[in-house]
Amino acid sequence: MWDMLKKMNKNTKSNLITYGIVIVAFVVMQLLISTGSISSLLEGLMVPLCMYIILAVSLNLVVGILGELSLGHAGFMCVGAFSSAFFSKCMADVITIAPLRFFLALLVGIASAAVFGIIIGIPVLRLKGDYLAIVTLAFGEIIKNLVNVLFIGKDSNGFHFSTKDVMGLNMEPDGTVIVNGPQGITGTPKDSTFLIGVILILITLFIVINLTNSRDGRAIMAIRDNRIAAESVGINVTKYKLMAFTISAALAGAAGVLYSHNLSTLTANTNNFGYNMSINILVFVVLGGIGSIRGSMIAAVILTLLPELLRGLSDYRMLIYAIVLILMMLFNWAPKSIEWREKYLSFGKKKKEAAK
Hints:
mainly alpha, 3-stranded antiparallel sheet, two-stranded antiparallel sheet, 17 helices, 5 strands, globular
């Protein structure tokens, strides 16, 4: 076994460590939950934590690997959440096997978000930098506002749609309202679990890591480093940019499915599907280190659990949170910090270079 590990290349070892961190963390948390060692509030954060990790890793594909600034991730999450919740609500009586229903809802959410990723990506990816950020941010806000004015009901005659109010649906007395405008969707089956969240994290990591290490991933990184040089050697820039953007959107849709099936009432507001959420996800990516998959995961975990762990320090909670943010930023981005890490945390690498 040890000989096999020695023969593995650096990338494979690093990838196995990343998967191992997730599995070990899951086992430890499950033991703590089963022994009652953590509070119910902290236990309730496990599914949202999985969602944040998926969102951070998937956004890193666009921001870190592709090198484009996107602020529309909350919009794709919103599409995945509402399309899957709509499907589950409609199929609750038809498909009684919860795992099967959730799996199909997951496929619906991923497909819906991917389609929106393609539709938005084709015109938007011609833009760069701040312009791309502004347009993707606008997309997220448009999706949120569209959901808030949408009313959908179902009766014996089928589905009814309205953008005014419930009365505008003109349903039969036996009809039920599924999407109720600003009040969202109520009664979505609570099928999300911590185990499902961890499985989705591992699938997300597998997709992103394998894409990054593949021929397509190298083409995407070549576009990030120098677009003109990439075009000159025959790399189809539009194709690869759209590929990264669509995969990232689809994974955000999967996070949305996890989120929507963890709540009894799903509503679209600024905190969960608006500007604030997009900025939160971007903060995870930036503080964890742009392009670092493992860093995004660690940042998402720390910044999600920290406010809860500091709840007892009511007056100083946000002050400590702000200090941690600043320290993480300095550790990852300050020139002196980078120099220190290269000197003291890369000893294995230095030994190899010395041996050569």
